[in-house]
């Protein structure tokens, strides 16, 4: 089911992700961040579904289906470095910045910022090529939402 995306993630010179793989990868990244504190709360799940529904113009059922696929993919996905590299190569800076803002929304959804989530967000923003200042602004925007 995930063969093309896995082959992209493991390629030494990966091809850009197609739209379906990009959706799955971005959603799986949100799942990975939500799971990083070992408390995958329903409020985080709902936030992920709201984000992908709005971003990709999906119905609630389609957003839930994408989240389920992303959960399965994330459980099998390689390390975060490879994962984010594929996203970075496929997504322009301004859209990656929106990904970071969405990720902060997931982190903040349960009202607590665990150390594991903070550490993963620093790593993910860095690996996506997002400057610290821009990540901080994205976090502030997510907090106001």
From TrEMBL:
Protein name: TerB family tellurite resistance protein
Record-linked Pfam families: TerB
Species lineage: Bacteria, Pseudomonadati, Pseudomonadota, Alphaproteobacteria, Rhodobacterales
Co-chaperone DjlA N-terminal domain ranges (all copies): 23-140
Gene3D superfamilies per record: TerB-like
UniProt source species: Maritimibacter fusiformis
InterPro entries assigned to the protein according to its UniProt record, in alphabetical order: DjlA_N, TerB-like
Source domain of life: Bacteria
Residues annotated as transmembrane: none
